[in-house]
Design a protein that fits this description.
The structure holds two protein chains of two kinds. Chain A is mainly beta. Chain A has helices at 29-35, 53-56, 118-123, and strands spanning 17-28, 39-46, 59-70, 76-83, 89-97, 105-111, 126-133, 147-158. In chain B, a hairpin with a 2-residue loop joins strand 21 (430-439) and strand 22 (442-448). Chain B is built from seven helices and 23 strands. Classes of the chains: A mainly beta, B mainly beta. Chains A and B meet through strand 1, strand 2 and strand 8 of A and helix 2, helix 3, helix 4, strand 9 and strand 14 of B.
Chain lengths: 161, 477
């Protein structure tokens, strides 16, 4: 009769990895021009996805992927900030994008393990998005529907057991 | 024990120790009164019998068609994570199941009528039955997640399970029509203690490339879980009166239903017999303590979307909460208390039997031994029988079938043994043995299935055990 070792259960690791989109910002060039100033957008958002206990207590590590595309005629800065419940900045990701034509800027930021502290993710309950126009407020790109877009997604490993 | 664990306890009981309810050893084992429970038209020669309360019929059946305990927990030096991934997550398919049942006779008896062609039987038994199919896509989602599985649809229909506990009150009539044919019928009243079922789920969860954002997560769900009796048992547990609540619900204080068993035995000739039975042709109407949960709708999410200038209209907008509210509106999770009907897992048995060898003197109080076997009462009993049996049960993913070959040997009127070889989805090497011992009026029977598996119980896909104790009279001194 073959022996069983039920203590093996203690060695069972269930750590699936989930991914989904996080944030999408889209600002047409005419809106940027309409602000007629450097800072065309700044807004704090409630973002409780990371703060839910089922996630924050179990997340191990992960990667946030950003993709920024600028088809306007001006150089733009976009800043993505992670805020805790009190509004304190936990982490900042800044993007400077040259005017069109320009390549899509893609960046992956790791959290946990050798990356930034996973506590940033665990304690995030809000996001601040800021956009700054580093060019003029009159020109318009000849490309169709000129705009700046910021796309983001997260891929996180969580411990279920 | 928390009531929430009731589901899992039932499934575990039913699944790990207890299977598909096939009682191939008991079927047509006419020396045992409980054979009337699997064929109300079985041949009976008793004058009366009385089961010892709570000991007259105990049966446990359990089966797993996918993996065994040993597949995961064998002390083989392999990493348990590899074994779970290879053998369970990727090794099992959605037709693999954990299933089982247990039955406990609370009261059992029978007597021959004034017209000796009639035999009446009655009793009460408690039964729990459950089945859970391998929820493969849910397991993949839970074990590995959705990352790097773009466009892979996780099928929500993989959740298919049901389970229940009932008390069954029954009364049966067995009538010898003539020297060839015996027919029987058994009426049943079901008193449901609890029930849960989630068998008609549809939909999927998928992650695709987003239209605006990087990824789009889509949930398209049409799911339902129906329960009855769970909330009351939960309250009873909190109030410390769980046992009395189970008793109350089991004795007409829960949900009620009706059912019917039918059966026959027909002698094709003196030594060749065919039998058949249809069991639990019935339903339970759940109106008491019903909770039905539904998740129905479709939503696609690409994260929080801020599109200017529209987003500037309301600077105080809570985009996250709006997203949550939108998803909850598109895929609402709701509950209601509307009644529902469940149908019992109907079972079908059929057999053909060939008797041979020495003829035994009849135990019946009649002129019906082999010297007068052409009379209107009983047929002769032979020391040997062999034959084949068919078993089918209605399950959420369609009928399950088992085929059995058997050999039965009588050693006088005191000992009868039956051995079976059964093939079904759980095993191709299921050899069973049942023994009925008659010591004066005391009848004891023991039956066990899948005996080869006892070399390593943890490695078995199927196990079953039955025993019972009766007092039997044939009316002779």
């Amino acid at each position: 009769m073959e022996k069983q070792d039920f203590d093996q259960y203690d060695d069972l690791d269930i750590t699936p990895t989930y991914e989904a989109s996080i944030f999408y910002l889209e600002t047409p060039e005419n809106v940027i021009n309409a602000f007629n100033g450097a800072n065309f957008y700044s807004q704090n958002f409630n973002f409780d996805a990371f703060a839910e206990d089922i996630f924050s207590e179990r997340v191990l590590d992960g990667v946030i992927t950003y993709e920024v595309e600028n088809t306007t005629s001006k150089r733009l800065d976009v800043v993505f900030e992670f805020l805790d419940e009190a509004g304190n900045v936990l982490d900042t990701e800044s993007f400077s994008i040259d005017p069109a034509p320009t390549a899509v800027l893609r960046r992956e930021i790791a959290y946990g393990n050798a990356g930034r502290s996973i506590d940033i993710i665990r304690n995030t309950s809000g996001i601040r998005l800021s956009g700054t126009n580093q060019g003029d407020s009159t020109s318009t790109s000849t490309l169709p529907d000129p705009m700046v877009t910021l796309k983001s997604s997260g891929k996180f490993r969580v411990r279920i057991k | 024990m928390k009531i929430q664990n009731l589901f899992f306890t039932t499934i575990f009981w039913v699944c790990c120790y207890a299977h598909a309810q096939n009682k191939q050893l008991l079927y047509d084992f006419s020396d045992i009164p409980q054979s009337l429970m699997v064929n109300p038209g079985v041949k009976t020669d008793f004058q009366w019998f009385a089961g010892i309360p709570a000991l007259s019929g105990i049966s446990l059946h359990g089966g797993s068609s996918g993996i065994t305990v040993n597949d995961i927990f064998a002390d083989d030096g392999l990493d348990i994570n590899d074994k779970v991934r290879d053998r369970a997550i990727n090794g099992m398919n959605i037709r693999d199941e954990l299933s089982g049942t247990f039955q406990l006779e609370l009261l059992s008896g029978g007597f021959r009528g004034r017209n000796p062609n009639y035999f009446y039987s009655f009793g009460i038994y408690n039964e729990a039955d459950g089945i859970g199919y391998w929820f493969k896509d849910y397991a993949i989602l839970a074990y590995e997640g959705n990352a790097d599985r773009l466009n892979q649809e996780f099928d929500l229909s993989h959740l298919k399970t049901r389970g229940e506990m009932v008390n069954v009150f029954h009364f049966g009539i067995n009538k010898r029509m003539n020297n060839q044919l015996i027919v029987g019928a058994r009426g049943k009243i079901y008193s449901s203690i609890f029930d849960f079922n989630s068998t008609r789920n549809k939909g999927f969860f998928v992650t695709r490339e987003g239209q605006n954002n990087l990824l789009a997560s889509t949930l398209d769900a049409d799911m339902k879980l129906r329960t009855s009796g769970i909330a009351e048992l939960e309250d009873a547990e909190d109030n410390g009166n769980l046992a009395s609540t189970i008793m109350k619900r089991g004795f007409f204080g829960g949900n009620l239903g009706l059912g019917l068993d039918l059966g026959f035995t027909y002698n094709l000739n003196e030594q060749t017999v065919i039998t058949g039975s249809l069991l639990d042709l019935g339903f339970i109407y759940h109106t008491n303590d019903v909770q039905t949960y539904t998740l129905n709708g479709a939503a696609t999410v690409e994260g929080v979307e801020v599109i200017l200038p529209d987003a500037l209209v309301d600077p105080t907008a809570d985009f996250w909460q709006d997203l949550v509210d939108e998803v909850e509106a598109l895929v609402p999770f709701e509950d209601d208390t509307k009644g529902y009907i469940t149908f019992r897992p109907t079972k079908l048995y059929a057999s053909i039997r060939r008797d041979f060898g020495e003829q035994l003197e009849s135990r019946e109080d009649c002129d019906c031994n082999y010297t007068v076997s052409g009379g209107s009462r009983a047929r002769s009993r032979y020391t040997n029988s062999f034959g084949g049996q068919l078993y089918m049960i209605n399950r959420p993913r369609g009928p399950q079938t088992a085929l059995t070959a058997f050999y039965l040997r009588r050693f006088g009127n005191t000992l009868t043994a039956k051995t079976t070889y059964t093939v079904d989805k759980f095993s191709y090497s299921n050899i069973g043995l049942g023994v009925s011992i008659q010591a004066g009026p005391v009848n004891l029977y023991l039956m066990a299935d899948n005996l080869l598996a006892y070399r390593n119980v943890a490695d078995t896909h199927y196990a079953s055990f039955q025993l019972g104790l009766n007092i039997i009279s044939w009316g002779k001194n």
